[in-house]
Amino acid sequence: MSLFKNIFSSKKKETLDKGLEKSKTSFFSKLSKAVAGKSKVDDDVLDNLEEVLVTSDVGVNTTLKIIDRIEARVAKDKYMGTEELNTILRQEIAGLLSETHSGEETEFTVPQNKKPYVIMVVGVNGVGKTTTIGKLAHQYKQKGLKVVLGAADTFRAAAIDQLQVWADRVEVPIIKQKMGSDPASVAFDTLSSAVKQDADVVIIDTAGRLHNKVNLMNELTKVKRVMQKVVEDTPHDVLLVLDGSTGQNAFEQAKQFTKATEVTSLAVTKLDGTAKGGVVIGISDQFQIPVKYIGVGEGIEDLQVFNKYEFVDSFFG
Ligand SMILES: Nc1nc2c(ncn2[C@@H]2O[C@H](COP(=O)(O)OP(=O)(O)OP(=O)(O)O)[C@@H](O)[C@H]2O)c(=O)[nH]1
Ligand SMILES: [Mg+2]
Q: What percent of the chain has pLDDT over 90?
């Protein structure tokens, strides 16, 4: 499949290129060291390459898959020059990712037959949940959709205020109660209000909670159950937000979280300003749950629909 299957807007590409700059610089400087003085891809080069991928946060399992694929090519093509390595890596990573049937979206959309479409956003403290909600609301609003936000992170007063700031910025309604109130009750109110307003999309913020705290996971379950009293089969999407700048830690969080609660999609944030962007490759390869969005900055426009071809294209571009 062509890497250029989706010709993406130059603005989006520019933001993505900029966001991945640190990851790319770090990766290619390691790669050039890995092949220094070598003209041919041999076992030494492959060993070094393995290390480059692992230290670029691609993750061990995905790295081994990539190395296997390259080894198979080296076995066929007895003399493979190191100057080709970049192209080959790009092809093999794209090939690997194309085996998963996700990451092909290019636009922010919601299914038409679900109204309101309810997204519950979860993830540990500080990963970028509230920011991602603000950016998402902005995208949907621009598409002409009617959005309602629910401040179900009632743990801190500042959390409610922060969502309010985003609601004001995007100019969408927010449903909130006072700090310390029951998150399930806020979610219930939000859905009730959304139904009354004939809203298209509801996005529920939740408290940054620890994945190993059973009681907190139970609370998420309660929030879901209460929402189902208003709209059947909600939430339609449980979006787990991961902080990409924590590299393998993000990977671990995804593992723990998906084990403890039902998660239907992932967002990887803070890819700008980190050299750990390779983690997105590992996460999209290793999880059945699709990476739907990536965060590439703090601004309102800095959320993108993750597209694996665009990502590889930008990374190796
Ligand atoms: N550079 C960068 N910063 C981001 C991105 N996404 C979020 N942030 C920043 O990360 C910090 C935490 O974001 P929040 O949205 O408050 O995270 P949260 O998960 O809601 O945090 P809690 O409510 O404390 O659990 C903020 O300073 C955001 O501006 C991103 O894609 N890039
Ligand atoms: Mg928050």
A: 81
